[in-house]
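Run folding on both entries below.
>entry_1
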Amino acid sequence: MRNFVQPQARLDGASLLVTGGTGSFGRHFVDTVLRRYDLKRIVIFSRDELKQYEMADRIAVDARKNVRFFLGDVRDVDRLEMAMREIDYVVHAAALKQISAAEYNPFECIRTNVFGAENVVRAALKSGVRKVIALSTDKAANPVSLYGASKLASDKIFVAGNNLSGSLGSKFAVVRYGNVVGSRGSVIPLYKKLLAEGATELPITDMEMTRFWITLDQGVDFVLSSLEGMRGGEIFVPKIPSMRIRDIAGAIAPEATLRVIGARPGEKLHEAMISEDDARNTLELDDRYVLEPAFNFWSAKGYVDAGARQVPSGFRYSSDTNSEWLDRDGLQALLQEAE
């Protein structure tokens, strides 16, 4: 498994806020930073009181003194400003993520993913937050779904936030990665659920469909290392493996037959995290790509001195042309880690 731990963010003594903190990523992120760092305070900001109650019940008693739960919605900028008072770092993980739900409820998707991103930037600037890093998705590159388009707009908002910070010095960056192994709503839990119910046939969108895959541990470590290294305006993309959905089904249930059901609205056959048009602004490091901002916030010299190199013209980082692939053993290793 690729390691994204070094360099880690220096969070000892800092105050941290996580939007969408009761989601799959948020819970794992909070568990990780509570274990690794001596935080002054961590604020979990989300709108679901039941999830907050359940999450609080899971946190060790000795860690609870530094944890605060804030009920609120990223659509409410006043509530965000209140939650961000005296906060050093923000990780923005709140979003509406289901592709089909976004297609059917476009106004709701835009209000959370786009207006919510603007509100996070406004509140961070008003509160003097030092660094904000936002979670994006592979679907934001050349989007065909409303979800992808809304996250592309969100990415642009966070990058442009660096234009607005001025003497405040607040910095904004984005992390973009693929499907999370075992996360809520992904295909692997669906297949396991169907098999547990006695299914002998599994649905598949297309026999050639591919996706990027990352574990929650990798995602958290990638966010922490990006938070440490960010200079403001970057989009960080991890180097992670691809796998065909049919091979996932075959690894989980070798005896099951596959039934092709066709693409859902807004669903791609393959996902790209870096398009050909992005290539001119993309640097490559050993474990990640860095998309430089179109605005001249800083020189790339720091990354070049660290060994970064310009990707070739016409480069495209896509799940179907990826150089790194998961086989069945690799998937089983990721599943065991995810569990």
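>entry_2
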Amino acid sequence: MQKRIEIDATSYEEALELAVEKLHVSSDRLFLNEISENKYEALLDVSLALEGKKYVESILNNLGVDYNIEVRTLNGESELHFIVDSSENPLLIGIKGKTLDALQVLLKNLIGTFTHDKIVITLDIGNYKENRKRQLEILATKIGKEVATTKQPVKLKPMSAYERLIIHEKLADWRDVYTESEGEGEDRAIVVKPRV
């Protein structure tokens, strides 16, 4: 369900003007219904996938890089996955994926302006996240086995929330070990501990 707001206005034209101002879109993207005297309902008419794709394309065009972009939608538009392959993947990914993470935040913020619903949005560039996920799952398995054998906790290097989630999920069903996050901010890290 996309964004819907109610507006108090004395005329259709005033309601349309207020809706454009409040929703930050052009009038051709709005449906306006009069629901009672001086009360209107404004509905956005946008494809979240298309808006997100256009936004990512505008960033890449401004950077002057060649790219291919694919958008996958699941469950209607409740999950949007943007996959980019570019001539400048390392630049767009950044050190430890920080530029990629920042681009994903911008994309989430943009799509959030069009809907009140919770939408899962991922942006991957050059399969960085998919490869990183595999690396982290291998690391989790290795450390899980080590902790299960030695019965000694192991603290991993600090990671992003996304990376910690992968480790937590990989070891969630293990009988011999469990995970906890410790620390604050950029120093937050996972500790794999033996079950007693």
